[in-house]
Amino acid sequence: MTEQVKQLLEDYFSACANLYGIIPLWKFLEIYNSQNEPVTEDEFKEFVENFDFQGKFYDIIGEDEVFEEEKHTPLMMYDLTSEYLYCDGSFDEFIELRNFQTMFQYYVPKKEKLLRYKDDYFYEKSLEFIDLRAFLRNLPYLTKEHADNIAEDVHLNLCMMKPDEDNWEYVVSWAVEQGFKDKEKDNLETFLRLCFILNDHVRKHWFCGHTASEVNF
Q1: What is the largest CA-CA distance in the chain?
Q2: How far apart are CA 152 and CA 160, in angstroms?
Q3: What domain range includes position 38?
Q4: How are beta strands 58-61 and 22-24 bridged, if at all?
Q5: Model pTM?
Q6: Angle formed at CA 118 by CA 216 and CA 131, multiple of 5 degrees
Q7: pLDDT tens digits for 115-162?
Q8: Fewer beta carbons below 10 Å: N end or C end of the chain?
Q9: Is 194 part of a structural domain of the chain?
Q10: Same domain flag for 31 and 8
Q11: Looking at the structure, do residues 93 and 156 belong to the same domain, yes or no?
């Protein structure tokens, strides 16, 4: 395997961890091979076994690491997993997310678009996001930088928010910490309405990279 192929596989690791949160290695290889000169399963296994995950924002996790009764997990059944799902030492959210994902097919954009997700800060700027950002930028007490930071972090929180989770108080409280004044009732109502709308148009880990509007959830 050439160094160029190894780098491309690493780029796909980053992109898929950011877009999906969790993806089995067998599915990862399927996606990679569908968009590139295929590598064999044996070549891929060797790459994974020698890959240094230290310092990355993702790792691979097998069921034998999660469940005590599991004795051995084949490498291709390991899951490429985003760091936030295991960094606290608990696998509860990992298990919940992985189980929920079984209801959906993976959203697989074309190679050029998929690889944009290797950047930890990349996200699709939908019209709904632009509407929220424009509202915040027009508030007289927020600088453009503060407004953009609030909009971007709301987007990030919504990407990871569970579909059935009512976590809007957290979203609002965080925005308040950044300078949003929720005491103004009209502004708060508009802010929440725009967040609700945006929530249907962010690519969620829970939907394997799809938006809620795409899966009609």
Answers
A1: 60
A2: 13
A3: 3-118
A4: unpaired
A5: 0.88
A6: 50
A7: 999 998 888 899 999 999 999 999 988 899 989 999 998 888 888 888
A8: N
A9: yes
A10: yes
A11: no
